[in-house]
Every structure is written in structure tokens, then in C-alpha cells.
Amino acid sequence: MVRQPDSSPSYGGYEALYSAAVEPDVFKCAVSVDGVSDLLGNMKFERSFGADSARYTYWVKSQGDPTADATRMMSHSPYRLAAGWKTPTLLIHGDKDEIVPIEESRQMKRALEGAGKPVRYIEIEGMGHGPSSDDEWTRVLSEIEAFLAVHIGEPPPSTPAAKPTR
């Protein structure tokens, strides 16, 4: 069993999407695993755990109040920025994710497809928030590697390690 990294795939997924949206000429492609695409929608989900829950309180402090900061949060939600998208995008999401609802990736896919933008969507049956089994890691990393090979190119062949000189 492979240990899941301590960092959350959702923030990295959000950041990849947002960066691709606001800096479309910088990136050759973007990969989001279990990423948030709608800050307001995510806040609604977090609030479902209770307006005074630790989860919701944390996100209000981190992202802002969904009422007072709604305009800013909408302008920073990648799915709302699909019209200007240029970057080929890979979306991967587990259908058993209890941290970020799968609808976040589904709506990003719909927004990109609706805007005629390049997107590949992979929904992994049984996977929670990020891969946790060897099979899930293999699937996710293989999909990412294949996507990067198409959009960035094959990695250079491995070279033997240099022998130390004396």
C-alpha cells in the first residue's frame, strides 16, 4: 500500500486550473486531480457540515465569506473562466471523494467542452480524495504521464549515473 502524500490534491488541482485560466500563454497544459473549480460551490458544500463547523470556519478564513466576497470568489473560480481558456486540460476525480465533490470536476469538464476547449476527463470508480492504493496511483500517474507526453513531449531517455571521479 502506497501512503497518500500529506498535501491535498484538491488545492493543487484548483491552482493548476486557476493558473491555466489567468496565465494561458505560460502553460502548455494543466492537470487537476480532485480539484475545486467553483469557490462558491465549494463553500456551499463545506457549509453543509454546519455553519459553525471547523471545516466551514477554516474555509471562510482561507477563501473568504461567500456572501461578502462572492464577486471575488466568482472571478477566481476556474469554471467561470472557460471562455478564455487555451490550455489543454486533464481532469481526474474519484467518484467516492468526500472532501471535494466530484461535481467540481464534472462542471469544469462541461464548461470547457461548452466553450470548445481541449479537455480530457477521467472519473475513477471507487477512488476517494486522491489515490490511496497501488492500483489508483498507477492509474493516476499513468494518465498524467501519457497526457504530458502528448502536450509537452516524451521525457529524455535516462542516462546512467555518472561515476564519481577521484
* Average residue pLDDT: 89
Round the Cα radius of gyration to an integer and report it.
18 Å
Number of E-state strands = 3
CATH architecture descriptor of the largest domain = 3-Layer(aba) Sandwich
Major sheet: 3 strands, parallel
- What is the straight-line distance between the termini? 41 Å
Helix content: 40-55%
Query: How many DSSP helices?
Result: 6
Order of helices and strands: HEHHHEHEH
Show unreliable segments: 1-7
Number of structurally distinct domains:
2
Strand order of the largest sheet: 1-2-3
Overall, the morphology is: globular
Supply the CATH superfamily name of the largest domain. Answer: Alpha/Beta hydrolase fold, catalytic domain
Roughly what fraction of the amino acids lie in strands? 5-15%
CATH topology of the largest domain: Rossmann fold
